[in-house]
Amino acid sequence: MNKTVINTYIPPCLFLLYLPLFLLTLLLFFLYKEDALNTVAYIGIQENWFFFLNSKLSQYPNLQYNLTQLGDALVLLPFLSIFVVYAPKIWQSLFSASLISAIFCNLSKRFFTIPRPAAVFDNESFVIIGKTLTGHNSLPSGHSMTIFTTLTILMFGFMPRKLKYQTIWCSSLILIGLVIAFTRVAVGAHYPLDVIIGSIIGYISGILGIFINQKYNIWEWVNHKKYYPVFISLFSIGIIILMNKIINENLIIFYLSFITLVTSLYIITYSYVKK
Predict the structure, then answer these.
(1) Residues 8 and 93: beta-carbon distance below 8 Å
(2) What is the 8-class DSSP label of residue 50?
(3) Most CB contacts within 10 A, which of 29, 52, 90, 270?
(4) 24: domain CATH number?
């Protein structure tokens, strides 16, 4: 499987960044045209859309609350843990992309300091699912960035060879990513543009992660079984964290993530001992 990933990964071509950078430029121009390059106006131009999407999407609270947890790397990455054994190239790119995504996310949130919906609107005027978030770190959506960073790695790592299948594959992953990302509006945690901008930055992070890994290969050690104890330790810690989440909130997505991680822990431990 790792050979498949290596053979299908993209060459480091900057043109793959043209579209997301163009979309960000387009959004910036739109905000400038609407005189919305300040906090009050930024929130104001999407207030109606926020209330509309929040009211419609929140009609399925259990589904939305489970899906939104996938924006948490501690819940999402266990679903990819098996690739440590069968496609370590995926994890090599994930490490680089996740670091880039984390840097972009922290810098952006500190720079823009946009208050979250619950810090601006009457909390009785829209639906809040789960914990009420009232910080001033709404832009961009970190969950959306995590989702699209990860999906971008998978999209290019397992890209089909035929063009017609590539279109279906890419469209499907982007659609899935947007469905999960917009749960952040459904649970009342973000404005629509927070999600869209976060998704675009997540895609850029994924592409840069692939480029960096292909050029410098700084995570080559992931390929070697002698380092499996590192992952065995990380997986064990992840299992404890997920058990704590299950105890506190008892969501089905936590159970699924937990089962996947336990399975991966067994496989990687068996592979290491067998050597």
Answers:
(1) no
(2) H
(3) 90
(4) 1.20.144
Residue 101's alpha-carbon distances to 69, 89, 152, 206, 240, in angstroms, are 18, 18, 12, 8, 25
Q: Give residue 46's Cα distance to chain centre.
A: 23
Query: Mean pLDDT over residues 261-267, rounded?
Result: 97
- Return all residues near 4 (Cβ < 8 A) that are at least 6 apart: 87, 158
The verdict on residue 71 lying in a domain is: no
Q: What is the pTM of this model?
A: 0.94
Q: Is residue 188 part of a domain?
A: yes
Say how far apart CA 193 and CA 140 lie, in whole Å: 8
Neighbouring residues of 258: CB distance < 8 A, sequence distance ≥ 6: 78, 239, 242, 243, 246
CB neighbours of 155 closer than 8 A, spacing ≥ 6? 169, 170, 173, 206
Cα 70 from Cα 254, distance rounded (Å): 9
Is it the case that residue 6 has pLDDT exceeding 60? Answer: no
Q: Residue 48, Cβ neighbours under 10 Å: how many?
A: 9
Q: How many domains does the chain have?
A: 1
- Rounded to an integer, what distance in angstroms lies between the CA atom of residue 137 and that of residue 148? 19
66 falls within a domain: no
